[in-house]
Design a protein that fits this description.
It is a single chain. The protein is built from one helix and 15 strands, in the order αβββββββββββββββ. The chain is mainly β. The protein has one domain. Strands 2, 3, 4, 6, 7, 8, 9, 10, 11, 12, 13 and 14 form a twelve-stranded antiparallel β-sheet that branches. A hairpin with a 4-residue loop joins β11 and β12 (163-166). It is elongated and about 50 Å long.
Length: 208
């Protein structure tokens, strides 16, 4: 065997090993362990809805979320949890606009997609999101780009802090059916939600 051919064979073997190792890691990330699981509650004193196009923001002073998480090991990340009830209160926007904000089309669904073993942080999405705004000067619907039941927001959960965080990047939320609102938000504008919820009881979520 020539030296050139030997180098080619070694390089091919290394590439194959790299692919195999990557496949194993990806496969491991498809199963999850959750403890204790079961019924969970989360409450935060600040939720911010922002329209990046206009720069307008609506801040709510109290948001309580309840739901469930599957418990055990070798769990699929798809539909591993659900949001069954949401109570959002104390919402005020620019120009002192006061709005009644309600979650719709519950339950929403939590799915996990990746896990960083070094930081102990799980990431995923909450899907099926629909939120309505109602007030004398402004009404709107927050939904996904695909319409009904298509709203998605990306989330992260660090085991160290036990706080579920809604991320402002990676989602598809947009405003629809906007009426009034003084141009602060408009139909078709994207919307982000920023919040961090301490989860009770505190969960440990790992993969594999």
């Amino acid at each position: 065997m020539s030296k050139h051919h030997a180098r080619f064979v070694l390089a091919a073997a290394a590439a194959a090993l790299t692919v195999a190792t990557g496949a194993t890691a990806a496969l491991a990330a498809t199963t999850w362990t959750v403890s204790p699981g079961g019924k969970v509650a989360a409450r935060t004193t600040k939720v911010t809805f922002t329209d990046p196009t206009t720069g307008s923001a609506l801040t709510c002073g109290n948001d309580t979320v309840t739901g469930t998480l599957k418990s055990g090991s070798r769990l699929s990340g798809t539909g591993i949890g659900s949001v069954t009830a949401v109570s959002i209160q104390g919402c005020t926007g620019p120009l002192a606009i006061v709005l009644l904000v309600k979650a719709a089309d519950l339950p929403w669904h939590l799915s996990l997609t990746s896990y960083n073993a070094e930081t102990g942080v799980a990431t995923g999405t909450i899907s099926g999101i629909k939120i309505t705004w109602a007030g004398p000067a402004c009404t709107a619907v927050i939904n996904g780009t695909g319409g009904v039941h298509s709203g998605v927001v990306k989330v992260s959960y660090p085991n160290r802090t036990g706080r579920l965080k809604l991320l402002t990047a990676g989602g598809n939320l947009h405003f629809a059916k906007v009426t009034g609102c003084a141009g602060l938000v408009n139909t078709g504008d994207p919307v982000t939600i920023s919040a961090a919820y301490p989860v009770t009881p505190k969960q440990r979520i790992t993969s594999p």
